[in-house]
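Progress report, Aim 2. The chain analyzed during this reporting quarter is listed below.
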Amino acid sequence: MGSVSAIATTLLELHVGFWSAYLLPLIMFCVGYAVLVWGKDRYIIKPPQGGVIGDCFRALWIAARNGFDIDKARPFALHNRSRVSWDDGFIDELKTALSACKVFLFFPIYWLTYSQMLNNFVSQGKFPPPRKQPPELTLP
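Predicted structure tokens for the chain:
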């Protein structure tokens, strides 16, 4: 409903005015807030149980110290098992996440070239090419 309101907002601005185009999102936000307040007793709220980010960094640190072998961070491969709070399934999910993140390696290259392209267009448009001086006219 919220994504469809973007179409309705532009049509309201065109045919009615800006006040209605801003009133529609305000009403949608109020409805969403009312639903959250009304249903707060029906939500299942679980207490926080710690973060997975710390475990990921610890597992990656263990893998980096062992020649970047992520299997060395498995609980059975470690000598002191009481120090780790993860299991083999966690390491499998971490390997899957790392292999999926390979696509993000190309993002910096893309954004650098895209930004450079925009800078080049601005630089080329800022300075016009020098004009040739017309030849001097001599009167007879």
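The chain has two domains: 5-38, 50-125. The chain has a mean pLDDT of 83. These observations will guide the mutagenesis work planned for the next reporting period.
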